[in-house]
TrEMBL record:
Residues 64-314 form the Uroporphyrinogen decarboxylase (URO-D) domain. This is Uroporphyrinogen decarboxylase family protein. It holds the Pfam family URO-D. InterPro entries: UROD/MetE-like_sf, Uroporphyrinogen_deCOase.
Length: 317
């Protein structure tokens, strides 16, 4: 069974020779700065050295700006993208070239940044500060934040359309803003929920799969119950939900994860410890559809051999 078949059959709940795996990381800053050629080469090297079943195509073409939002009126200044914006054309080239080079071997995911992440990037502030600014301005003028989010939604639709048209098998939607210690339920429902569900519904009209990543610790999984997706992934090791509680929310979806992403066995452990941890993870997932992965991106400097070792262990099952 090849990698593509293994992933697609897993998503369909059909029997496979063994569970597929999918891990990802941000490539070094100097690689990103070198541009498209270097980023494509980095993905292909990663694919070859790890033997991953799923190759997630990273998206470092973010809606960042150095013009910091200060006043409520500043939200009107967020840039509207077009299909010809460099941010989009560069990502399209990366996607297209990797799809061609992959030649149907790995299951490919195109990264689409969630609306909150892109609104934060477009604010000119880091996410350690931007939520407080949004909440302050929302309390004074909710429509100003909702109008800014509408621009981000339009921009993200362009990214989504380009990604779906590239030949990938699915999208990896990196949702941010669901943390219970950052935004309350009312803000989430009023600003984020409807436009994000709309974006994911657009994916449902295609034959592509959608992987929903609910980023950060303390994420309130119940907020994402109605988000259309085929696969769910979150910070299991920092969550206040048990796996069984998560299953009660998401039901018969495919579950992605198992390993801690920034510390713990995969990052710091021996091969014996990795093997033991993998067995524990598989016992936790039990009879549910699952893909072995991590809570989020692995450290940039992690040895690819560690990921390849998991592939070897899975083939022994």
């Amino acid at each position: 069974m090849n990698k593509m078949e293994r992933v697609i059959k897993t998503l369909a709940g059909e029997q496979t020779d063994h569970a597929p795996m999918g891990f990802w990381l941000h490539f070094p800053t100097d690689v990103i700065k070198q541009g498209v050629d270097a980023q494509v080469a980095a993905h292909l090297e990663y694919k070859e050295k790890t033997q991953t079943d799923i190759l997630k195509i990273m998206n470092e073409n973010e809606m960042r700006t150095t013009n910091k939002i200060q006043t409520i009126d500043d939200w009107k200044k967020i840039t509207r993208l077009t299909k010809n914006s460099k941010l989009i054309t560069d990502q399209v080239e990366i996607l297209d070239r990797i799809v061609t080079e992959n030649d149907g071997e790995c299951f490919l995911l195109g990264t689409v940044h969630g609306l909150m992440a892109s609104l934060s990037h477009s604010s000119g502030h880091s996410y350690s500060y931007s939520p407080e600014l949004m909440k302050e301005h929302y309390a004074r003028n909710p429509q100003a934040i909702k109008d800014a989010m509408a621009i981000i939604e339009e921009n993200t639709h362009l990214v989504l359309e380009a990604t779906l048209a590239s030949g990938v098998q699915g999208i990896y939607y990196a949702a941010l803003g669901g943390e219970k210690n950052v935004f309350n339920d009312d803000f989430f429902a009023d600003v984020l929920e409807k436009p994000e569900i709309g974006l994911l519904n657009a994916t449902k009209t295609t034959e592509k799969f959608s992987f929903l990543h609910m980023c950060k610790e303390q994420v309130e999984l119940k907020r994402y119950k109605d988000y259309p997706s085929d696969v769910v992934n979150w910070a299991m090791h920092e969550s206040h939900y048990s796996f069984n509680e998560a299953v009660e929310i998401f039901g018969d979806k495919t579950y992605l994860g198992g390993f801690d992403d920034r510390s713990g066995v995969l990052v710091d452990g021996s091969q014996a410890e990795i093997k033991e941890n993998l067995a524990e993870i598989q016992a936790t997932f039990g009879s549910h559809k699952y893909i072995i992965g991590a809570d989020c991106t692995l450290p940039t400097e992690i040895a690819f051999e560690k990921i390849a070792y998991i592939n070897e262990l899975l083939k022994q099952k």
